[in-house]
Amino acid sequence: MLAERRHQLILRALRSGGPAAVTDLSEQLGVSPATIRRDLLKLEEEGLLTRVHGGAVVDEGDQPFAEVAEVRVAEKDAIAERAAAMIKDGQSVLLDIGTTAYRLARQLHGRRITVITSNLVVYEELADDEGIELVILGGMVRREYRSLVGFLTEDNLRQLHADWLFLGTSGVRPGGQVMDTTVVEVPVKRAMIAASDKVVLLADSAKFPGTGMAKVCGPEDLDVVVTNAPVDTATRSALEEADVDVVMAGRVQA
After folding, report:
1. Residue 169 in contact with residue 96, Cβ under 8 Å?
2. Beta strand pairing status for 55-57 and 50-52?
3. Of 37, 49, 120, 195, whose CB is crowded by the most CB atoms within 10 A?
4. How far does Cα 117 stand from its chain's mean position?
5. Close Cβ partners of 244 (under 8 Å, ≥ 6 residues apart)
6. What 3-state class would DSSP assign to 218?
7. Model confidence over 53-96: pLDDT tens digits?
8. What pTM was computed for the model?
9. CB atoms within 10 A of CB 143
10. Which of 10, 213, 206, 216 is closest to 97 using CA atoms?
């Protein structure tokens, strides 16, 4: 594999999954740890990442949706399938931004439900399904991440009610706090929580602890967490104390 291609894959892995160890990157790319260390040194010299003990981390920016959508697809599909089974016909569903919410939308074709979303990719997926009542929240467009944000989005949510919210995240801290890397999305997520009866967090294995500097909510705001991997002891204890159900999706091969 050419060095340039390895560098692209390393950056993609760090942006989508947070900090990564040299050994993990070595296994993913099928090259030696020494090669990965040289790659990380080169990328750090170019200002594209920061090396940390045993691995590296990349500063989170406004990642293109299409890039994130290619990562851990099988895991996201397993979570989406489990989440879709919770929804009954006739119910209203809020779908958050993000790629896991998009994978969930793909599971909803043919259902008689109402879907409310600020996720433009969800809209594109469901627009031609005449059985689904589709409500698009207004707002400013974040083009790279295909979402709508801002006070217009929040105002719309204050006028709506949903039976379910399926919430995405960039990280879940050991205390159960749900985090996000993009501050502008946080008020919209909080408004979605306030507009919903039940809040379901969709979190694949990379989200424990994942990344994010902005707190969206605490475990007390969640009803269910759907994940595909064992939750660490501290996080599970925090979720149990808040009476949050942890639902395991089907295991997938790495």
Report:
1. no
2. antiparallel
3. 49
4. 15
5. 176, 219, 222, 223, 224, 225
6. coil
7. 778 776 555 555 555 555 677 889 999 999 999 999 999 999 99
8. 0.74
9. 11
10. 216
